[in-house]
Write the structure tokens for this entry.
Amino acid sequence: MNTRTHLAALAAAVCAGLAGAAWAGDVVCLEAESAIEVTAPMLRTDIAFPPDGKSSAVLASSSGGRYLEIPEGAGKPPEAGGDATIEFTLDQAGTYTLWCRVWWLDGCGNSLGIAINGGKDFTFGQDATYKKWHWVRSPPRLEQLMLSAGKHTLKLMNREDGIAIDQILLTVNPRFIPVGIEKPTPQPKPATPTTP
């Protein structure tokens, strides 16, 4: 391979890599179990206190050994209710793509509802990958994902049981594709109340 061909191939490889890379501020990754409020049948699951006193491969392969779930048989929406509210801060305004790292039991346990900032909820999921952690992308160009810089809330809502949610990722880079466990983005801590 001559030098010119080698440099062209190298430039193409670098450009291809950069197209999928996330720049600072482009990606916000949240741990689902960091929710400020969780109502049954949605619950936090932790490898330190596993359900039924035993650990599982699902727990072991989750980010930090913790996640949110609606156990099989626990949810029968809409009668059952159940949700989790997560607060997050964005550095920049934009049209975001939402990804969730999820575990689905089967075709009757492969979706949840999501609402952002108290807006209209939408159905998330309904793919056919079961019994393993995987990333699922939101439908493109959702009005609910046109977000301003600043504080926001995301509500995960009971739609089907037999589901688990490990991580939530928002990005303004439409080419970004999360792989495996992503590094969580530090979020501002709530202000500590002061006493006079």
User: Anything to note?
Assistant: The longest strand covers residues 163-171.
